[in-house]
Amino acid sequence: MISGRCSLLSIVRRLSEKSKQQCCTEAQKNGCSKRSHLTESAVARHINRNRANHNTALFLSSFVRMASTSQDSDKNIDCSEAKKNWLSLEKSPYLLQHATNPVEWYPWGDKALERAKKENKIIFVSIGYSTCHWCHVMERESFKDKKVAKAMNENYINIKVDREERPDIDSMCMMFIQRFTGHGGWPLNVFLTPDLMPIIGGTYIPRETFLTYLTRIAKEWTQQKDKMIKSANVITESLNGLVKTKPKTKDDGLPPLESVLLCAHMLMDMYDSENGGFSSSAMSINSPKFPEPTNLNFVLSMHVLSNSSALSEMTLEAGLHTLKKMSYGGIHDHVGQGFHRYSVDTQWAVPHFEKMLYDQAQLIQCYANAYVITKDSFFSNIVDDIATYVTRDLRHKEGGFYSAEDADSLPTWDASAKQEGAFYVWTYDNLKALLNKKVPGKDNVTYFDLICRRFSVQKAGNVRKEQDHHGELKGKNVLSSKLGVEDTASHFNFTEEETEKYIKEACQILFEERSKRPRPQLDDKIITAWNGLMISGFARAGIALKNEKYVELATDAARFVERYLFDKDKRQLFRSCYRGKDDEIVQGNVPIYGFHDDYAFLTKGLLDLYEANFDSHWIEFANELQDIQDKLFWDSQNGGYFSTTGEGPTILTRMKDSDDGAEPSGNSIACSNMLRLAICLDRDDLRNKAEKLLIAFRNKIMNFPIVSPQMLLSLIEYHHSMQIYVTGKVDAKETMEMLNLIRERMIPGSVLILTDPEQRDNILFHKNSVISKIKPAKNAMVHICRGQECSLPISSIKHLISELNKIKIADL
């Protein structure tokens, strides 16, 4: 830590001067500056204000990010000799990207940590992922630079971490940065003591400022090591206090169901009725907006669950309108299908172009749920759209799914530098040349005319400066619209069906042309947790659309995970595997075993897959995974699951995740999994664990319900679960008719079980007491149960429809 008033002043002056220079530079380029430069006194005041909290050095990172400009350092990059560092032995695409840096990078592990202790050097940890735009920028500016590398190698033990391989290290470092700087992101850069206590950190750091960091911190470590360690101790104790779970008292109970309604109303207050999505009213049009599938899943569920017709209608409108607006916008890839990570504006117009598997996996379920509720083919078409992208571009031939595609790519084959979005955007002239063909039977309309109208194509490009801070999209068009296809149909006096057909034909022409461009890099890491989400996605899509192909894709992925990502000797999951030569599946030299979300997400995927194909093997595997995670991650004292096993060197302490963000939390999903398995296999121990988990997060749920919408759905499931037993031959027509009637409805928190009297040798017949009491019958029948109370047998379609119409899941 850079401590002492005199030590800080030189950096304060430097940052202030850099800010002033940047302000002038921006004014010259843009004619005005939206941000005044940081004065020396302003920086000093901010530092002094936070000194009492031992945050001084940490807050410098926010000034570094605000007050510094990027410098082109290509002249210092040695391209003549590409020496490899320790990362060359790794399998992670992200780590391999840095394998020829002049920095002596290590992967996280004993070799690096032992050397740090032996040489008593500070550890510099840089965390990112292969599709991260700013990670690429910092590598180009700093980590390929000989001068920077020399400073790093002489004074630090340098470790590169793929956040997708090691979410445990990433989450702890992110908590440190967010707690003490108020922001977070990647690349995530943290300096640690040899004993793994955090000293200082930040996100993206420009080259010249990074050099200042490296020199100053190394000097302080030499001259004031004891003070730095003392400060790091204070920070560590503070952070450990944040993650420590307070023991529950006898007065603690389950979170109240009122928290569910509070979350619903909070989301409705944040709902953007014009553009869809959820955002603060204080956000400007140029603020980023994320899909947030956990919120979408929650509001669609609330439509079914709420007793209030007003709230039911509001949540349904919010969910459907958001899904439609997203599909119209540039966040949706209209040419190559699938969805990008997020939009840089509140109108979904211009995306950050990377594509992540976990987004596709969750959004396909949201659109499938929307179709089940509405029976509107608009939503089933988007389900097919996402499925097309995932199976074409993210699927290994044996069934597993890759992680992501990069945002950056070469604009042309002979270009030397990648640009964000280059693969996806179009110039006006390019589109005109490709789409000059007339629409069949419409002599006065070309495909180009249709595309221009549908996607707001402009001759000068349709990306505003505010949406393109680095000028990479100047003169380019993102295919994006605020309106549905009906606007284009009305303008040209076509039917909507004709318009959709012609736009699809135009997009196919563009797809074929785009396929000739350099593609963004594929991260072919296959992550257990994200494959679990995708198994759920395809299983639920198959159920909703009655599409056996989707169920087969989910089944293939489950078999892949069981074969390649489950260590049958240790009976543990691996975190990930990799595509090797000739598509061979390989493990890392030092395999990384699974974290709690790997177990939770995969268990959910297997339970969803069971309800899609009724193969009881997946119940057995899910049950085994549940027992394993209970052994490895369960907090027997306070309830809830830790994210890590606690084995091996780590930073700070074991953490518990309860926030449903870009992905749902492992605890939220595990709670539902336990309740479902408790029903399927008469496991009261799992229901008791689910209760303890909810109690463990009671205060969080009560005080901040909006951060845990998925866990709130599990809370409803705890109080109002429902089981639907269908008895009959699996391949019988009447059995399928009854199953399809049930599947045509969205029934949150329900468990669907099929029992075939002729197939009794399975875990369900052996463990489920309700099934053992159902008497075999000649014809298919249904029992609807709550707990141990079941309806009389339902043996006719008419009777089943009547009973399904009476279902009310919760009293909200």
From TrEMBL:
Alphabetized Pfam families for the sequence? Thioredox_DsbH
In the UniProt record, the signal sequence range is none
Q: Which InterPro entries is this protein grouped with?
A: 6-hairpin_glycosidase_sf, 6hp_glycosidase-like_sf, Ssp411, Ssp411-like_TRX, Thioredoxin-like_sf
Question: Which GO BP terms, alphabetically?
Answer: carbohydrate metabolic process
**Boundaries of every Spermatogenesis-associated protein 20-like TRX domain copy:** 85-239
PANTHER family per UniProt:
SPERMATOGENESIS-ASSOCIATED PROTEIN 20
Q: What is this protein called?
A: Spermatogenesis-associated protein 20
Annotated gene:
LOC105431265
